[in-house]
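Thread amino acids onto this structure.
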């Protein structure tokens, strides 16, 4: 164990850690080894000795009064010493002083050496895992890409992302997607967990609204630069999405810059999402106006916001011509569901009598039946 600090830089380089983290891992390994081979009830402290390039291990004993009740506690007593006994070693000690008794793990032979080796391996590995955990914990909600390494029997896809393997569960895949070994894919980090038995597990998602936002940020320079901000987003993966955008620059059109010339930017994002239709909406803080935009392509006559006792908007009553109702609901209720998700309000549709176009009531009813949607069911689904 002579000059153990000589291996710090080598370990740090091999494991991708800072020398300080390796030193802390070594100190912890010495303390845990002492607890295992000397006495688990003792309190220990390990310090770095830069001169000798070793780690000094000492047992810490606190001086207490002779009648201190803690001296009768079997668990705490080994870390304490009565003042009368302590003064046999040092007649200058006072209450609450801490005596340091040095220990050398080399005195415990092969048992001490092998135990220290295991503890060093364990705590260095824990330091590596903590480093990776903190790195990817900060990436939750951000875009990552990697290569598919395997697909299990439950259709969970495992992806190699940098130095770790992440999983994309079937529930977090867009409907109809399938991947094979060797494919490269993009996803957002949905969750990062640390388990003392299984280590780090990273779950990815391609169905989260955050995935859509990250793809738009990647594709649209104005969003990446902050000239356009994604205020809100909602999506039904693989089918349709709505994105509320706001411009921070008077000369930048939020919707136009996001869609791109001839829709080239939004189409590129849609292609990554298996053809998902993306509606770009200009955000406004006026709830009535925002809701009327969100209900597009339906043309809305008026919007009434119903608030709860705390003054928070909880429901919107939307009045519209009868011939616009099917558009407001959308195929399989998608449009109204997305509008509700984006605004955070329940939406109630109110037809205006006598306001119709060439499309008859019978045609609307037939279209709704064709889509398999009943208006009331869509409202409360």
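Threaded sequence (381 positions):
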């Amino acid at each position: 164990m002579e000059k153990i600090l000589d291996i710090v830089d080598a370990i740090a380089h091999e494991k991708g850690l800072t020398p300080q983290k390796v030193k802390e891992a070594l100190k912890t390994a010495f303390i845990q080894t002492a607890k295992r081979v000397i006495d688990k009830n003792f309190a220990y402290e390990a310090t770095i000795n830069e001169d000798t390039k070793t780690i000094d291990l000492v047992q810490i004993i606190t001086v207490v009064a002779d009648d201190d009740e803690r001296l009768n506690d079997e668990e705490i007593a080994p870390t304490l010493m009565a003042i009368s006994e302590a003064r046999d070693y040092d007649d200058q000690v006072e209450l609450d002083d801490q005596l340091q008794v040095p220990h050398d793990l080399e005195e415990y032979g092969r048992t001490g050496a092998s135990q220290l080796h295991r503890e060093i391996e364990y705590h260095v590995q824990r330091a590596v895992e903590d480093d990776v955990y903190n790195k990817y914990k900060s990436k939750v909600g951000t875009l990552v890409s990697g290569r598919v390494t395997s697909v299990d029997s439950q259709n969970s896809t495992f992806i190699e992302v940098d130095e770790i393997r992440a999983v994309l569960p079937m529930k977090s895949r867009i409907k109809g997607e399938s991947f094979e070994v060797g494919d490269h894919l993009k996803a957002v980090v949905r969750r990062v967990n640390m388990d003392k038995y299984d280590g780090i597990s990273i779950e990815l998602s391609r169905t989260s609204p955050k995935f859509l936002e990250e793809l738009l940020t990647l594709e649209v320079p104005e969003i990446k630069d902050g000239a356009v901000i994604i205020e809100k987003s909602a999506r039904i993966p693989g089918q349709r999405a709505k994105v509320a955008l706001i411009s921070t620059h008077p000369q930048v059109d939020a919707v136009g810059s996001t869609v791109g010339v001839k829709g080239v930017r939004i189409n590129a994002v849609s292609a990554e999402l298996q053809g998902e239709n993306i509606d770009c909406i200009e955000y406004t803080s006026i709830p009535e106006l925002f809701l009327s935009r969100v209900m597009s392509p339906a043309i809305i006559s008026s919007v009434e916001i119903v608030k709860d006792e705390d003054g928070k908007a909880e429901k919107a009553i939307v009045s519209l011509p009868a011939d616009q109702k099917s558009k407001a609901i959308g195929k399989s209720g998608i449009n109204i569901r997305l509008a509700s998700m984006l605004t955070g309000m329940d939406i109630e549709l109110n037809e205006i009598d006598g306001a119709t176009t060439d499309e008859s009531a019978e045609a609307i009813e037939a279209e709704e039946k064709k889509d398999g949607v009943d208006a009331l069911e869509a409202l409360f689904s």
